């Protein structure tokens, strides 16, 4: 009997331990609608039939009969409490200030605020005589609204599935971080918490992706990861420490296997514009006269940009390279770029299956499918073997200091860390599953 009891205890212990490593999403999540309904004097509800109530440990507890108003309702602060109005007549005052002041549609439908509709319940949080709306909603239904904001519903279903899992994981990570706890909600509806505009953009494809992957998240060492993603890598992703300070072992730069329709861009800056950017950055190097890429990552992403001036030079590193250009037309779309007209000195090797030719990139002849010789490209060279698309890396030397300024030719859109959404779409089109996509972009992780 003692042995049997000991065995039962051991089994129960294993079950407890295994359960501790996989998080379950809560019944409801609180989303601060900071984009359009934050710190307002009043907020209009378009619904004509609603019920008022309070938060009861995450569940809605009705405290009124059904209110009817053909013109909808207005919420404002009156006498220090949140009050509900139909026209000029007050119909309800949320006098219990210890619990959240909430409303829901009487028939269980969506609540309409302005031009947006929201599933679940809307809570009105007062602060200094003003109101912020909070959407209290089931996490999976929240993701119904997130996915079509973050990835096109026209993307391949396996890419949408990968996005659903990444978004769910990101949601849980940010909830655990508690950045918005002091504001009374878990996440906001801004881009740094994932874009969310209620149900207005929901689509059958993205909803299916959420449902088909329900509950699945990405883990590293039994903890949910910071599952960041971006629109387009342009050929390769980057290490987390090259963009932010912290090194995360699961956010390692990788080659993009088959990115579909990567974003291609170029920006031209005059020397006068660069002087403006330098001034905004606090640089004192005289007049700008040259620019060079002085450090790149393993796959060619620019890690250090140097601007030469008449009295010195100014170096910009990491993600600050993108934002350096904000005062003169906006941040760069990515750090995957080269300086047009700059020399490229990296050696490359090409094999045709019989022999290897090694040379400097600039000394090779580039031909189109018809065999015609093309101008030697300064960068952005890719090799395709029928399965994988691989970039030929090159480091641009100092730019020419003559002319009216510099032109940057780039690929990709976003910080470049984690999953490339267009890369995921390309991998899905090539036959990869959502698991294979996620395991490619996030290193050493498990999905469960």
What would you note in describing this structure?
- It is built from eight helices and 31 strands.
- The protein has helices at 2-20, 139-150, 157-177, 204-212, 271-281, 320-324, 421-429, 434-441; strands spanning 29-32, 42-45, 49-56, 59-62, 67-68, 73-78, 81-86, 89-93, 101-105, 111-113, 116-118, 121-127, 130-137, 187-188, 218-220, 223-224, 229-230, 264-270, 288-296, 302-309, 312-317, 337-339, 347-351, 356-360, 366-367, 373-374, 381-384, 389-392, 405-411, 419-420, 446-447.
- The strands form ten sheets. Strands 1, 3, 4, 5, 9, 12, 13 and 14 form an eight-stranded mixed β-sheet that branches.
- A hairpin with a 2-residue loop joins strand 12 (121-127) and strand 13 (130-137).
- Residues 1-21, 351-357, 385-389 and 393-400 have low confidence and may be disordered.
């Amino acid at each position: 009997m003692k042995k049997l009891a000991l065995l039962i205890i051991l089994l129960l212990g294993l079950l407890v331990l295994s359960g501790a490593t996989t998080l379950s999403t809560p019944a409801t999540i609180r989303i601060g609608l900071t984009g359009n309904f934050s710190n307002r004097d009043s907020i209009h509800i378009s619904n004509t039939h609603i019920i008022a109530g309070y938060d009861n440990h995450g569940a809605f507890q009705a405290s009124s009969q059904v209110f009817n108003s053909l013109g909808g309702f207005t919420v404002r602060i009156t006498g220090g409490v949140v009050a509900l109005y139909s026209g000029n007549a007050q119909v309800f005052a949320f006098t219990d200030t210890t619990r959240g002041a909430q409303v829901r549609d009487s028939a269980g439908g969506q609540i309409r605020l302005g031009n947006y509709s929201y599933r679940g319940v809307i809570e009105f949080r007062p602060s200094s005589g003003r109101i912020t709306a909070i959407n209290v909603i089931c996490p999976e239904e929240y993701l119904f609204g997130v996915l079509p904001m973050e990835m096109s519903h026209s993307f391949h279903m396996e890419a949408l599935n990968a996005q659903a899992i990444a978004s769910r994981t990101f949601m849980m990570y940010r909830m655990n971080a508690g950045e918005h706890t002091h504001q009374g909600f878990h996440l906001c509806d801004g881009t740094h918490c994932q874009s969310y505009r209620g149900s207005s953009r929901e689509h059958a494809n993205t909803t299916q992706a959420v449902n088909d992957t329900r509950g699945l998240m990405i883990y590293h060492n039994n903890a949910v990861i910071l599952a960041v993603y971006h629109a387009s890598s342009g050929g390769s992703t980057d290490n987390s420490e090259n963009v932010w300070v912290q090194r995360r072992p699961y956010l390692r730069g990788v080659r993009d296997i088959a990115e579909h329709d990567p974003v291609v861009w170029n920006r031209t800056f005059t020397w006068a514009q660069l002087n403006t950017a330098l001034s905004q950055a606090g640089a004192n190097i005289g007049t700008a006269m040259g620019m060079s890429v002085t450090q790149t990552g393993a796959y060619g992403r620019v890690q250090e940009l140097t601007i030469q001036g008449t009295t010195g030079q100014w170096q910009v590193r990491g993600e600050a390279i993108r934002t350096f250009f904000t005062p003169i037309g906006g941040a760069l779309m990515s750090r995957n770029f080269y300086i047009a007209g700059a020399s490229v000195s990296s050696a490359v090797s090409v094999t045709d299956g019989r022999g290897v030719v090694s040379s400097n990139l600039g000394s090779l002849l580039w031909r189109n499918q018809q065999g015609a010789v093309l101008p030697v490209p300064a960068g952005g060279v890719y090799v395709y073997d029928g399965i994988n698309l691989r970039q030929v890396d090159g480091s641009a030397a100092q730019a020419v200091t003559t002319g009216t300024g510099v032109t940057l030719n780039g690929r990709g859109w976003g910080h470049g860390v984690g999953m490339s959404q267009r890369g995921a779409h390309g991998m899905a089109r090539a036959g990869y599953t959502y698991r294979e996509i996620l395991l490619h972009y996030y290193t050493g992780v498990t999905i469960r």
